[in-house]
Amino acid sequence: MSKKIRVGIFGCHKYEKASFSRANENFQFELVWIEPRLTEETQSLVKDFDVVCSFVEDKITSPVLETMKSSGVSLLALRSAGFNHVNLNKAKELNIPVVRVPAYSPQAIAEFTVALLLNISRKIHKSFMRVRDNNFSLEGLTGFNLYKKKIGILGTGQIGAAFCKIMLGFGCEVMAYDLSENNELKELGVAYAPLDQILKESDVISLHLPLNPQTQHILNDQAFKKMKEGVSIINTGRGGLIETKSLVQYLKTGKIRAVALDVYEEEEGIFFEDHSQEIIQDDTLMRLMTFPNVVLTSHQAFLTEEALQEIANTTLGNINDILETGHSANLL
Ligand code: NAI
Q1: Which residue range forms the structural domain that includes residue 283?
Q2: Active site residue 238
Q3: CB–CB of 38/22 below 8 Å?
Q4: Are residues 43 and 169 in the same domain?
């Protein structure tokens, strides 16, 4: 019998196991679940595997890749779309192919964005806590309609486009900013506009851009200054799109009506894990949590059964393609 391919799934979460086990029925790899993140501290663990499977919390630096190479790891399979946690140049130099999951379910993230928007527009987070405390008063729970509101969407790629369509269904006026315009969205009624106009006119601003040097802190002090009094902001893109210290200042002045964040610029080492018995040292994050009009979630927008299954199917499919043919459409 030929030896099974051993795949080390690093930084593995319990919620991923079922989808990977189901996907593996088609491939019969030997999947090994490893809870620690793959970093320079844990890199010696790679020596047992033919393939390393990594998530966004890992840090695949030069030394980690060197260890992979010297241990005979033949492939790095990312179970994410993002790859800014991998030193790709080094992987190329060492001839370690890297595959990823470019898209798994834009609707999962778009729908979660809507959930956050409805939460902050109708203060569901407050009423949930209140009713559980036998407080059935409505005082302080007045929200706002989304119907006819101006929604400014930054980034109309796969996720932004899905979110635009849902917001059109709510009867919102949808404005968008992107380097390239999507004709289908324009035909549906989305109005592309310069960034400044969106900042000035939007009642709600939602971020769906990738994080890169051009988009980092796209919402900074200058941008907050231009916004309407009473604007609401949602970020399910990447934390670094917002200059958080500046956001805190504008929350303190009351200019911003409500904020929902699924991502935070310093989330590494905090998000995805249980820190309930610890003292969190990040004062900006702690300050954000004190505002009654701020809702934070822990990078959860992708987390649906459908998205997890798609991630698992594509990841194991990518591994199989590379091992069998040396090629994959999802090779970086
Ligand atoms: P995408 O690549 O399909 O779309 C990104 C859009 O941003 C493109 O239309 C592109 O033209 C535009 N863009 C890039 N740079 C720009 C710039 N400087 N100015 C204006 N527009 C620019 O990406 P997709 O799949 O829609 O994802 C968007 C982001 O959502 C991802 O980069 C990721 O950061 C985030 N995300 C968050 C998840 C979560 O669980 N919270 C899960 C998956 C993705």
Answers
A1: 106-296
A2: yes
A3: no
A4: no
